[in-house]
């Protein structure tokens, strides 16, 4: 599970985690302040309507859902003798819509679709407030992601022109090399920096990350903020080394040493950690 976030709904702090690229809300937190909170989730799971809803959700989104075990639960659901825990539901049917986590910060989490249904069962008004707070959280996160993207784009572009100008002025013999081959020289220099910083060329990264490559992402798209800062610094450093006529091997060794030193230093800087 990813790092938790939280929203407050009618004085209840409800934790949210990212799982399989989706938001899961804590059902445990939703009932924590209610009487007999320890049996509420179990009572909800005993209902036939609940089992049918959960089963339909799993059939829509979970190719590994075990239908035979689900049908057994559906037959028994609603009877006085029927009981079901989140762990039993997940274990028997291979369900993905619920998560059960033990420990101090554990509890039962549900995909947002299921969590909203559970909230409506508790109280329709509570569901409305829950949706409102959840939407507010997503709007805030959307603005933060946009700001982060702008920062990453600015970092990536900081010394790009300095680097390409150095390649153009010193490494591309304009009178001898056909212009269609210029791109290969630029790519070779970009990969020299990739090797120094990431330990991989762009091609090697694509081969190791086929899903990201299919989405047209690159090795530099995967970089964190610290790596982008160092990337910008390496572009400036490589431009200086190119002008001073260092060999490719010498430039790689100096950039590799610089990358290791700078990353180590940046990751220890508390101000940048906050950034």
TrEMBL record:
InterPro entries: KilA/APSES_HTH, KilA_N. It holds the Pfam family KilA-N. This is KilA-N domain-containing protein. Residues 5-137 form the KilA-N domain. It comes from Chitinophaga horti. SMART domains: KilA-N (SM01252).
